[in-house]
Amino acid sequence: MTHIIASPAARAPLSPADKAVTMTFADNALLSLLLGDHDRHLVRMEQGLGVRLSCRGNRIAIAGEPARVEAAQTALGALWRRLERGESVGTSDVDAAIRMSEVEDPRLPLSDLPAIRTKRGAVGPRSPGQAAYMELLGRNEMVFGIGPAGTGKTYLAVAQAVAMLQAGRVDRIVLSRPAVEAGERLGFLPGDLKEKVDPYLRPLYDALHDMMPGDQVIRRMGTGEIEVAPLAFMRGRTLAHAFVILDEAQNTTPVQMKMFLTRMGEGTRMVITGDLSQIDLPAGTRSGLRDALDTLEGVAGIGVCRFDKRDVVRHPLVARIVDAYDQRAAAEKETSVRRRAAAEGGGK
Prior knowledge:
Layout: E1 4-8, E2 19-25, H1 28-35, H2 40-49, E3 52-56, E4 59-64, H3 66-84, H4 91-100, E5 116-118, E6 121-123, H5 128-139, E7 142-146, H6 153-166, E8 172-177, H7 193-211, H8 214-223, E9 226-230, E10 242-246, H9 254-261, E11 269-274, H10 288-296, E12 302-306, H11 316-346
Parallel strand pairs: 7-11, 7-12, 8-9, 8-10, 10-11
Antiparallel strand pairs: 1-2, 2-4, 3-4, 5-6
Helix pairs in contact: 1-3, 2-4, 3-4, 5-6, 6-7, 9-10
């Protein structure tokens, strides 16, 4: 069995407030995988966690602020255990370990994080927000996942749906989206109804194919065990013993959202995902997702998970893009408030 040993680092810290430790790894072959080509994983961790890392022999020295050093130890330990289990470590896994090393919830130690288990393997969280979301998915009959693009809201919901279908806990999966985005309408698109609808539902198909073999997806869609349909097709139905996901829910109206939520039948789970910063409804139309949150948050049996830029698990640039837009929106709001206050003051 391989052990990780933490001891005081030989190199003195740069300031009295800094902390330094050394982690010793017993398997040099696995250690090379932990470091990455040309130590690129260590470099990424230095940049992501704000610590100094250096490797000599089978030891990695960590120096920096105490909280940062502890986060680095946690991240390196998580990646090491991943390698011991025979799993690979790539750039995305390093980024995930960096995010997860800062989990503040004592109920979620890295060794005991939730996982969604499908027949293609376990799907684990890659950010603190994802860990909380996965707990809600396992515990609640209805869950709202709210946040920016790239946080895994839809992907993890589909993973939970597939896991429950394969375990026999639901009889079918129903995936839906409102077919109104970026100012377009189905009638203006070429082709028959399926050809019009498919582009809107493509992300749901992609997530499904990640969770199970393509031939199984096609077979289950043929038998009705998996249904992918636009939101309009939900009207008048009662969905029982199903796992139902409504994606891009920010583009529903309040009437559509109420219609969807009241389709819930016996033994059904529902997940509603959306990004309130990307509403494509006509100006002046209230988002059904915002309306539902204002109405239902706090109702027993309903879980709400709010992701933020720290939970973005796509390219790191995506998180910076989200942050830039958030900062601009905040600045515009502040400017608007000042102008309104000035106008009211000048009118007196």
